Amino acid sequence: MSGSPHPSFSRDELMEVNAARALAGARTCFVGIGLPSTAANLARATVNRDLVLIYESGTIGSKPTRLPLSIGDGELAETADAVIPVPEMFNYWLQGGRIDVGFLGAAQVDRFANINTTVVDRGPGKPEGRLPGAGGAPEIASNCGKVLMVLRHSTRNFVQKLDFVTTIGHGSGPGDREKLGMPGAGPVAVITDLGILRPDPATAELVLTELHPGVTVEQVRAATGWELRSARTVGATEPPTVGELTALRALKSA
Amino acid sequence: MSGSPHPSFSRDELMEVNAARALAGARTCFVGIGLPSTAANLARATVNRDLVLIYESGTIGSKPTRLPLSIGDGELAETADAVIPVPEMFNYWLQGGRIDVGFLGAAQVDRFANINTTVVDRGPGKPEGRLPGAGGAPEIASNCGKVLMVLRHSTRNFVQKLDFVTTIGHGSGPGDREKLGMPGAGPVAVITDLGILRPDPATAELVLTELHPGVTVEQVRAATGWELRSARTVGATEPPTVGELTALRALKSA
Amino acid sequence: MAEIRSLHDAVADLVHDGDTVAMEGFTHLIPYAAAHEVLRQGITDLTLARMTPDVIYDQLIGAGLVKKLIFSWGGNPGVGSLHRFRDAVENDWPRPLELDEHSHAGLANRYVAGASRLPFAVLRGYRGSGLATRTNTVSTVSCPFTGEELAAVAALNPDVTVIHAQQADRSGNVQLWGLTGVQKEAALAADRVLVTVEEIVDELAPRPGGVVLPTWVLDAVALVPGGAHPSYASGYSVRDNDFYQAWDSIARDRDTFTRWIETHIHTHAEGTAVR
Amino acid sequence: MAEIRSLHDAVADLVHDGDTVAMEGFTHLIPYAAAHEVLRQGITDLTLARMTPDVIYDQLIGAGLVKKLIFSWGGNPGVGSLHRFRDAVENDWPRPLELDEHSHAGLANRYVAGASRLPFAVLRGYRGSGLATRTNTVSTVSCPFTGEELAAVAALNPDVTVIHAQQADRSGNVQLWGLTGVQKEAALAADRVLVTVEEIVDELAPRPGGVVLPTWVLDAVALVPGGAHPSYASGYSVRDNDFYQAWDSIARDRDTFTRWIETHIHTHAEGTAVR
User: Is B56 an annotated catalytic residue?
Assistant: First the structure.
C-alpha cells in the first residue's frame, strides 16, 4: 500500500488513523467496541499486522475481515486463536497483567484522563442522564500495561469536572495510581478528531501534544472544557496515507 | 445376571460388593482411587447403571470398561460426558454442592469417622511414617451430600486416636459438622471386609450395624482399636450374587 | 434432571413473579424466545441480572415487568442507547427501575462466587471508581498474607437462570459452543435452570470450545429453534445486526415500542421466533 | 514469545538452582523428559510444586535436587508409596525435604490466585483439618457480606512452570487436550514457562477440550515426542501402567534407584525418552 498522503479525509478519519498508529509495536490490545475496535482493526491492516486483538466477549487473537458491530459478533470467535469464558478473561488475562494496551472510549474525560460512562448531570430539576455504564473499563484501565483513549473532541466530552467517576485514569495527579495499587501505567494518549493529548510527565495533566493537519491550538482549546495547556512543542500528526485510508474505508464498507 | 448367591468369594469381594451396593440410588459419586473406584465401577455394572462417576482429574460421567489404575487414565476422559479443569472441579462441582456421594478410603479412621491420610506415629524415637496426604478428601468430606468409606478392618486402620486429623468425619460428635459449617451430612457408612459400621444417630459414633456372612461380632471388635459398640440389632449383609461377582471379576481382569 | 418440555410450560413452572432471573449470553446465544414467553405470561416484579442487558432486557423493562436490574453495561452494542432502560431509569416509565450496577469483572466474579457456592469473590477492581458507593454488593477484604486491600463482590445466586444452547440430547444434557460467556457460571449459580436449544440430537458430539451442562444440573430443556434471534447461535444462525439497528427507532418512542410488543410478542404463539 | 529450542538449551536457560518450579499434569501429560533434563543438568536446591508429586518428583527428590515440596497428594497412583519421597521425609535421605502440604482444592486455588495475580484465593476448605496448622500458606478471611469465616490460601507463583502438550505451531502457540488439570493456571501463574510437545504442526486445529496457550505467554517450546512417558499424551500414547508398577521396586531401595537414574537418565542424550 502506498505511503503517500491522501488528498481528502475527514476529521473522524484523522482520529481513526492516528488511533491505529498508536498501536504500533503493541503485542496485545484489549479492544472496546466502537472507535477503539475500528482503530485496532485498522492497526492490524496497517502498522501492526501481528497485533493480538482481545475482546471482552472471550476472544483472544480475533482477525475479523470487517468491523464487528458488537463485541460478540460470530466472526470474532471464528477467527480467534482461543475462545475462553468471560470470567477467565477478566481474571487470568486482564487482571493477570497479560495485556499490553487497553483501548477505551469515553462519554466524559477530565484533565487527568479519568472517565465517566455512567451518568450525566442534565441540570437542576432534571433527572440524571443515563449512560451505558462501566463495562470492562475500570479494570481495563487499572490492569493493562497502558491505556489509549479515543473520542471526539467537544466541551461536552472534555469536561472540567466529571459528573461521575466510573474509571480512574490518573486520579488527581501523580502517585494516585500507585496509591490505589493499579499495576498499569494508565492513559498515555487521548486521540481525538482534533489532535492528541498526553499526560504531562510532571503533573499527569493532559496537555495538547499534536495537532491534526489543518487544526489550530485555539480550536482544540475551544473544544475542551478546562483550560487546556499545550506541551512545550506541539507537533503535527502526519496526514493519513493512501494505504491507511484505503484500509480504513475497506474495513468500514466490508 | 443371576441374583442367586455365589458359592465362593473372598473377604475383599464382600467389601467391594457391599461398597457398590451402598451406591444404589445415588445420582453422582466423587470417586477416590483404589477401593472406592472399584466399588463405584461395580455399582455402574450392577445396582446403579446410571451412576455418574466423577474423578478429581476432571472427568464427569466417566464410563470405563476396566478399572482405572490411576484417577487420570485415558479411558476416564475418553468416556466422560464432560472433561473440565481441576480448579473448576473443586470449585463449581464439589464446593458447589453438586455431588451426592463422596467415596473415600483411609489409612486410619477413628470412632467418629475422622480420617488420617497424612502421617503415622511409629513409636518413640522413630520418625513419623509418611502417608500420601490429603488429596481431595477434606473438601470431599465437607461438601458432598454424604460420604461413604471403604477400607480393610484392622486395629492398624480403626484406631482409638488418629495420629493426625486430615479430614473431618463427625469431629467429636453431633453438632461438630454444623459448627464447622460443613454443608454435607458426612460419613454415613464405613464398609469393611468384615461388615458395615454406621454412625449412631444419637452420638455420631460408628457402631457395628451389619456383619458379612461368616463373620462374628467378636471378630470385628478384635479388629477395631476402640471399644466398638453394636447397634441394637446387627444385621447380616446378603452374600454376593453370581451377577455381582461375575461383574466384579470381569472388571478386575479387564 | 432436566425434563424436555414446551417453552410455555417450562417458563410457567420455573419463573415466578418476584424472582431474580439471569438470562445470560454475551452477545451470542441470548435466550430471546424465553424472554418473550415471560412477556406473554406477564411474569412481573422481576429482578433481572445480566452483564449486558441488551435489547432482551430493554423489552422486558419497557413492558413494565422489571423492578430491579443487576448489570454492568447497558447499551445496544454498536448502536447506541437502550431507550426503554433509559426511560425507566430517568423517568420511571413505565415504573421505577432500581439499579445494582457493576463492572464486567465484578459481575462476572459475582457469578463465579455463586457457582462456587461461596458468599463472595475477590478481585483487584473498582479502584477509585464511584460504582462501589452506589451498591451494597461491593465491599473490601484484606489479604491475610500481604495485607493488600482488595475488592469483594457478593455472590449472585439467581432463582432462575435461562440460557440458550445449540444442542441437547434426549436425556436433557446440553452443549453450547462458540462464545460461551458466563453461562456456565450463571447456570451453576442458580436454584433453577431452563435451557432453550436449537436442536435435540441423539448424542452430543464433543465440540471445540464446547461447554457441557449435564442434565442433572438443569431443570428443563425446551426445543426452540431460532430462540436466540436477533442474537445468534453459532453454527445455526448469524447475528441479525439489522434488527439491533432497527431496535433503536422502535424503542426510542413509548408508543412505537408498545405497539411492537403487542404486534410481535403478544399476538404470537409460544415459541414462535420474532423476525 | 516462545522460541522453539532444544530441550537442553531451554532447560539450561529457564530453570536455575534455587528456583520454585511447577511441573504440572494431572496423571496425563506429565513433563518427564524435561524433569530428566533437569536431572542431567543437576539443577538443584529446587522448591518443587505439584498437586500429585508422582514418580516424576520421586526421581528428582531421590537424586537430591529438591529442598522443598509443595503438594497435596504424594503417592504412586494406584500402586502405593513414593519411596524416594518417603525416604527423604522420614530419613532425610539424600537430604532433608521441607514440606508445604495442602488439600487438592487448596493447592488448585493457589494456582488460580497465582494466574489471577491476586495474593490469595478463598475456599470453603481445610475445616477441622490439621493441615492448616502445618503451613503458613493457609489462613482465614471473613466474608464482608455474611461474616462467614472461610479458608484463604496464598497465591502460588512459580519461577518456572514446565508442562507437556500435544502440539505447537511454528510460532510457538500451544494446544493441549484431554485431561488438562491445572496446567493453564500453573503456566499463567509463572514468571517463565517451558512447554515440551509431541509434535510441531503448521496450524493448530481447534480440538474438543482444547486448551490454547498463545506463544506470547510462553518462553520456550521444545519438541520432545514421548516426553510425557511413562505418563501419556492423549492421541499420541497410552499410560505405561507397567512402568508405574515397576517403579515401586526400583524406588524401594536406595541403590537400585541410584543405579536406575545412572543408567536411564545420566547416560542418555538429551530428549531421549526413557522406556
Answer: yes
